[in-house]
UniProtKB/TrEMBL annotation:
This is Phosphotransferase. SUPFAM superfamilies: Actin-like ATPase domain (SSF53067). It comes from Neurospora tetraspora. Residues 92-284 form the Hexokinase N-terminal domain. It comes from the Eukaryota. The keyword Kinase applies. Keywords: ATP-binding, Glycolysis, Kinase, Nucleotide-binding, Transferase. Belongs to the hexokinase family. Its EC number is 2.7.1.-. InterPro entries: ATPase_NBD, Hexokinase, Hexokinase_C, Hexokinase_N. The keyword NAD does not apply. It is an enzyme of class 2 (transferase). GO terms for biological process: glucose metabolic process; glycolytic process; intracellular glucose homeostasis; mannose metabolic process.
Length: 575
């Protein structure tokens, strides 16, 4: 009715201007149709999607290997056609050599990285028994009862965890200053032990006997280790205030003091860095493990290195007996701190760096870790939307917020069209896109872009591992020349030189869940071996999964310390 009235009014107005009613009526019906047939103006963009992806590939992958191609089908990488000849001009190999020199320098005097642990022995696989282990991570406190059954008797780390509790470290806990944080830890440990007693996992009579229950601690923060169960507390980062007022104080002594004050009958007997724990847990099952790799929110590598690589000042105050026993030592590299002035940065990396509160603290971590991969992808995607018309050229408001794209969502984009619509649905819901968005073309674009960023990450991690492997191998070969003829270290070094398959125990969400990341990293390791002229049939670096690595590694470390303590007591008794 309203539309008919509008027609009549419009027609009457036209009649008043000298037009007939019929002319006016025809003009009204025809003109809207004429307007609808007008060509709708469309946005114009600076370049095509193909041009953007071509540049992204050159920026992200060109500096590391200009022979790599975009993701094809289910593979990020194209093999090098079977060419096995050495390629000393390989840009990734050159980057690895630069990293090796930075690692060598860090091993001499830098107090912030390449931190030698007190543990100089890898597990023999014979360690058995039930042990209390605690893992203090960046987001979770885990307390577990670990049953070590010996090498060859368990399929994987999961089978050795007989009881475990997880406690989320919320922001309010991270902001607990000094001793308050360690009190929170002690309460959680006490709660776990009481529940384990109720479940019949721990003997109540044994726990209440007065003798403290030994505990192994995996500490996911820098630590200047001074003994098997002690080390100087260092700044923690990640918004933790637990170190406030405690910098330089002994971690083990601090924990044990608070445990006693709160009448928790537990004692810290062993402390190990989380990357070292990964190495230990893998070595417990695989005797050829010499590296531990963590790649999740952050990145780190632990390496089992000969002591001749490490400057004497790095060891701090240690008894002469330690040097008499140690030919090798586990080193927490703090890998993320390396790479300054040698890593190739794109304009998207520079935007991330410019907005970071500590832009030069962890250069390598910015390019490889789970915390930053999604942010690099977000920054590049925002530019692509503006300049190519991806997502219709309209930037979702949430996408303008820093770190609004996490790596889990990015990993779905890598799966892209292969995810059965899941990636499309998650992206559309997260960024509140209109129906029909993202389109198939949008998904294909984001799949390739995310793949390039992840591929670069895998290549840099591979270059880091290969650099450490070369550094270790070179030192192992020269070590015998520095030893006395009858040195007990000669046999240990000979064993190291005979290893054909060096295992890297790995853990972390990126390596475990990001589509094809582990396979791509392994491909790069193999490619670096070929570029360096190594025969892959004689030597190889192999990735092996280390499940529940922190808890298992803490338990293995504790078992080793207690075994050494028992041996020392036996020697005193027979003296």
């Amino acid at each position: 009715m309203a539309s008919l009235k509008r027609i009549i009014i419009t027609a009457l107005k036209s009649i008043s201007r000298g037009r007939s009613f019929l002319q006016a009526l025809l003009a009204f019906w025809i003109s809207p149709k004429s307007d609808q047939t007008k060509v709708k103006q469309t946005k114009t963009f600076q370049r095509t999607r193909e041009e953007f992806l071509k540049e992204a590939k050159e920026l992200l992958l060109g500096p590391i290997d200009n022979n790599l191609f975009p993701r094809d089908g289910h593979s990020w990488i194209t093999p090098n056609n079977g060419d096995t000849s050495a390629n000393l001009d390989d840009p990734l190999l050159l980057l690895s050599k630069k990293l090796k020199e930075q690692f060598r320098e860090g091993l001499q005097t830098n107090p912030a990285c390449m931190l030698p642990s007190y543990n100089h022995q890898l597990p023999g696989g014979h360690e058995r028994g039930q042990y209390l282990a605690v893992d203090v991570g960046g987001s979770t406190l885990r307390v577990g009862l670990v049953d070590l059954k010996g090498r060859g008797t368990a399929d994987d780390g999961d089978s050795t965890i007989v009881h475990m509790d997880n406690y989320t470290i919320e922001r309010n806990v991270r902001l607990l200053a000094g001793a308050d944080f360690f009190k929170w830890m002690a309460w959680k440990i006490d709660s776990f032990v009481k529940k384990a007693i109720d479940a019949g996992r721990i003997s109540k009579d044994g726990y209440e006997s007065g003798v403290p229950m030994p505990m192994g601690l995996a500490w996911s923060f820098p630590l200047e280790q001074t003994s098997p169960n002690g080390g100087n507390i260092c700044p923690m980062g990640k918004s933790f205030l637990a170190c406030d007022g405690l910098i330089g104080q002994d971690l083990g002594a601090t924990c044990n003091k608070i445990l006693r004050e709160l009448q928790v009958n537990v004692e810290v007997v062993s402390i190990v860095n989380d990357s070292n724990a990964t190495l230990l847990s893998s070595a417990y099952y695989n005797p050829s493990t010499r590296f531990g790799l963590i790649l999740g929110t952050g990145v780190n590598i632990a390496a089992h290195l000969p002591v001749n690589l490490i400057g004497k000042s790095k060891f701090g105050a240690r008894p002469t007996s330690w040097y008499e026993q140690a030919s090798h030592v586990m080193v927490n590299t703090e890998l993320g701190m390396f790479g300054r002035d040698i890593l190739p940065l794109t304009r998207w990396d520079k935007i991330l760096k410019a907005a970071h509160e500590r832009p030069d603290f962890q250069p390598l971590e910015h390019l490889v870790s789970g915390y930053y991969l999604g942010e690099v992808f977000r920054i590049a995607l925002v530019e692509a939307i503006k300049t190519t018309g991806v997502l219709g050229g309209e930037i979702p408001p949430l996408l303008l917020e820093a770190y609004s794209m996490d790596t889990e969502t990015m990993s779905l984009m890598v799966d892209g069209l292969d995810s059965g619509g899941k990636a499309n649905a998650v992206f559309s819901q997260l960024y509140r896109l209109p129906a029909g968005n993202p389109s198939t073309e949008d998904m294909r674009f984001m799949q390739q872009l995310a793949g390039y960023i992840a591929q670069r990450s895998a290549s840099i991690v591979a270059a880091s591992l290969f650099a450490l492997w070369e550094l270790k191998n070179g030192a192992e070969k020269s070590f015998p020349n520095e030893l006395e003829p009858e040195s007990p270290f000669s046999d240990e070094t000979a064993v190291e030189l005979k290893i054909e398959r060096t295992a890297v125990g790995y853990t972390g969400s990126v390596l475990s869940y990001f589509p094809e990341y582990k396979e791509t990293l392994q491909w790069y390791l193999d490619a670096l071996m070929l570029s360096a002229g190594q025969d892959s049939n004689e030597q190889r670096i192999e990735l092996v999964q280390a499940k529940e690595s922190s808890l298992l590694g803490a338990a293995v470390s504790l078992a080793g310390v207690m075994e050494e303590e028992g041996r020392r007591l036996d020697e005193k008794g027979t003296a």
